[in-house]
Amino acid sequence: MRPNVDAAVVHRENRRFHDEVEAEIYDQRMGIDHGAAATRRMIAELEEVLGESLPRGGTAVDVGAGTGHVAVKLARSIRFGSVIAADISRRMLERAAQSAVVNGCGIEAVETDMAQLPFGDASVDLVVGCAVLHHLPDPASFMREVCRVLKPGAPCIFIGEPTPGGDRIVGVLQSPLFAARGVYRRIITGRPASERQAGQIDVHTFSLSDVDELTSGFERVRVLPQGFLEPVIDSGYLALVRELLAWLPGAMTIARALRRCCRRIDAAVLNRVLPPSWLMSMKFSARRPLE
Ligand SMILES: C[S@@+](CC[C@H](N)C(=O)[O-])C[C@H]1O[C@@H](n2cnc3c(N)ncnc32)[C@H](O)[C@@H]1O
Fold this sequence. Notes:
The protein is an alpha/beta fold. It has a single domain (7-164, 196-228, 275-287), classed as Rossmann fold (3-Layer(aba) Sandwich), CATH 3.40.50.
């Protein structure tokens, strides 16, 4: 984790980038779908990280919910009385609300900066977050907020956070592709290669000792670094297909099949044999102590 981050700049850039750039293209670029199989996969992934079944009933909050990748699936799974999608970007939340309607389920969208969660003490049964902690200026103080809002004994689950080693390896493998993507994107769309302000939007990576720091004050912590081939191929190469070549007949079907294939190779082989520091995605769960 990086110390001394300028919180005002990071918040401003995250809101701007997600409102003005990501909301429009995020679901297509990330290949987000809320079908029954994708919903089952998401629940299975969260339960693998938690090490047991998700709780049932009460309130689940998806922090940094974006366009609802997790929140809509939690709502579709009909496990909770209410599912809240919290995010700093109004336009991302509008997309999440639309996806919930299209998928026949309900979520409550709450526009907020996660530095302070607008929920009462001990009021939430589950907090989940996907690909979000690395955007926060001070993830450790955010985790104290998570602990405050969770009921005693209730869990939080975080997935999709970059590790330092994985981030470097994946960055090197992706860099030729990103250069080509930038040129192609500029030619096809006339937009700049990237609208990301490096270091102001993606702020942190997380080592195992960082997770220790984040979960201090919690109990029953489980940490599972995972993912190599899927992040390299998917967020580099297949994201290009989804963003810019979706019009090619069969392109999306091939992209989906390749992604499934990479995920299976990761699960069957690479997650087991590669050193944890090479794996790209830091996942962990923890519980508020019972007191
Ligand atoms: C990479 S997206 C992930 C979205 C979603 N969780 C997913 O898995 O697709 C990160 C999200 O975090 C949100 N975000 C960034 N900083 C935030 C903050 N300080 N408070 C609330 N949301 C924030 C962004 O607006 C964006 O929607």
